[in-house]
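Page 37, top half.
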Amino acid sequence: MNAKTKLRTTSSSATTLGLCAVLGFGSQGTAIALNLRDSGCEVIIGLPTGSKSRRKAQRAGFSVTTVSRAVAGAQTIIFAFPDHCHQRTFASAIEQHLHPKQTLVFLHGTSISFSLVTPPTDMDVIMLAPHGPGISVREQFVNGKNEMSAFWAIKNDARGKAKKRLLAFAKAIGIVGQKKLFETTFDDEALGDLFGEQTVLCGGLTELIHAGFTTLTEAGISSDNAYLEVCYQLDLIVSLIKRFGIEGMYQRISVAAKYGSLKTGPKLIDAGVKKRMKAALNEIKSGAFARELSALTPAQLKILDKDLKKLTSPEFEKAAKKFG
């Protein structure tokens, strides 16, 4: 355990969770497994036999077994592997090994909301969705910042103890205090999460940044200059918005930035953008996106990685590495 890390749970909290099976060892899975262990919980990692993450988990000192064996022996089962694999993995390696005394923990609402996974009704099913990537979940735990927040929801409460287990899990991974936990539903979290990622946080934002970058470079501005103007300062603006709101951010920038924002912003992000956002929201609501996601094959995932490279450019990536 890192010297800076403090044990976050009492022995009774660890007892509440019992043996924790973390299925997956990617960004969130690694952070959650490490935090649980540092909180005094017993942890086992469940991974397919051919997974490249097995060696990584073993090097981190965890006991690693198959998904089926991990599920069969655990009291708390955390779905920390990619959402697009939930449906097929649940059917092939999880469902037949479940029993009523277990608790299923989801980190997103998608699989339950869109019925990709249908757990038995006689077991606890909860969700804790951290408001940050795995690296942040781990770093804040190690540094003792206790600033991470999360959405939570309960789908099944088979024995009246689901919330107790949810709170024990939240505390064990470093989300401490009721003020950091925001109640929601599986449906609302799934819809908001998918919509936010696609239209604003990831899909929309990166398109806007790269469009600004290429507009400047095509006008003769150097790549370094363009990157510094349309991307490098973005975290400062976001920080102001998070602390003071949009209006508060505008109160803290220059008159030129204020006037330019009013003059140009609404012309770029106009009614047409909102119309297309509504179309994206309706597609998510219908379950079409979740079905497409669940049906992705390894071959399609390789194509996806290639297609994503088309959303950026070597010039932008070079500048990002230079100033990152």
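Page 37, bottom half:
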Amino acid sequence: MNFTDLSPKDKKQLHEEIVSHAHNIGGENVFLQMVEDIREAGMILLLEKSTAFRFNGGNINWSKSIYKDTLTLLLEALKSDGDMFEGLKVKKQKSMLNMLKTLKPVIIRVKPKNMKDGEGFTLSIVETDIKDKATISLMFRIIFFEPIGFTKEALAYEGE
């Protein structure tokens, strides 16, 4: 995903959401450090049985264990641009649907080390829109998968 490809409305909305989350955990630098710590730990951190990850500025907890096969399907879904079911065989579509059902109830909680820095924030892995279409949450993608440059561009966005 490329930040410059987003519409001005989407850029502004994403900027506001990231800034809000950043201020709820201690500021933009803490947010960026969290993202970099996640990159350094790799995707294996999502497979932790403890469902927790500590970074310099706080903790991240998720409500349910994620298994390797689910994570593999999630990574596949992230690679698809647009509809993640397009071009899949029926058996693979069923696996992808099961992955979405498994991840839908998972809530990720980010809390700062010092509660004076903010109240933290929560996010979902899977979002559903009005048309009952399930997608992977953009904020989840930004924190766990997108390059750090994307996050920095979104934070620095000032409008057009």
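Margin note: The longest strand covers residues 107-112.
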